[in-house]
Specification:
Substrate Binding Domain Of Dnak, Chain:A, Domain 2, binds FE2/S2 (inorganic) cluster, 6 helices, alpha+beta
Length: about 200
């Protein structure tokens, strides 16, 4: 749990270093206060206290995360529109908009991919080192992603994937295993969860 506390503090520090200007003073003060509270208990032996402060900082930072995400999507969409206008929409390949992830893809990126490739393979081919512990054989949960846009363009998950997803950290209705999510014609907006199942179990 201490590791998770350190990671959370690192993540918020890094986000503030880049995008503090997006916040008004009240929001910044609230975040800094919650950060200080977490830092004060980060080495505590009582994991419940640490978890409580992590949850508090994450809840208070949620609006900041949303503002950053929207700003990134806007920037990335501009890149897509520019590219499409150059090549002509008719000939375009599907594009994956990868939202920022502190460790794997800090700035977010837009990548063009061949139809039929899995999202996991597309990420790895573009140096986004998502975990894939079972080598993409639909047998672990480490390649969990959220498909924020374009979800319905991907073939439905099978029973095995659904069972594995039940164990994923941060499961939500947009969750898929990236090795089983095959790109069709539509563009996709992909978010990589903050933690993998392995990182969470290491801390317990
Ligand atoms: S890499 Fe194991 S399920 Fe995708």
């Amino acid at each position: 749990m201490q590791v998770q506390a350190d990671r959370t503090i690192e993540a918020i520090d890094s986000a503030l270093a880049k995008d503090k200007d997006m916040l008004d003073k009240a929001m910044l003060d609230d975040i800094m206060h919650a950060r200080a509270q977490l830092e004060a208990v980060a080495q505590d032996t009582d994991e419940t206290i640490i978890k409580d402060k992590i949850d508090n900082l994450e809840a208070i930072s949620a609006k900041f995360v949303e503002i950053r995400m929207n700003s990134t999507i806007t920037k990335l969409c501009r890149v897509i529109m520019l590219k499409n206008s150059r090549i002509g929409v008719k000939n375009k390949m599907p594009q994956l908009i990868i939202l920022p992830h502190e460790e794997l893809c800090p700035e977010g990126v837009v990548i063009e991919v061949e139809k039929g490739i899995s999202v996991c393979n597309a990420l790895l081919a573009n140096d986004i080192e998502i975990e894939h512990a079972c080598e993409m054989s639909n047998a672990c949960t480490t390649c969990h992603i959220y498909v924020r846009e374009g979800f319905d363009s991907i073939a439905e998950s099978d029973e095995t994937e659904d069972d594995l997803l039940d164990k994923a950290w941060g499961l939500d209705p947009d969750s898929r295993l990236s090795c089983q999510a095959i790109v069709d014609n539509a563009d996709l907006v992909i978010e990589i969860p903050k933690y993998t199942i392995n990182q969470v179990s290491e801390n317990h």
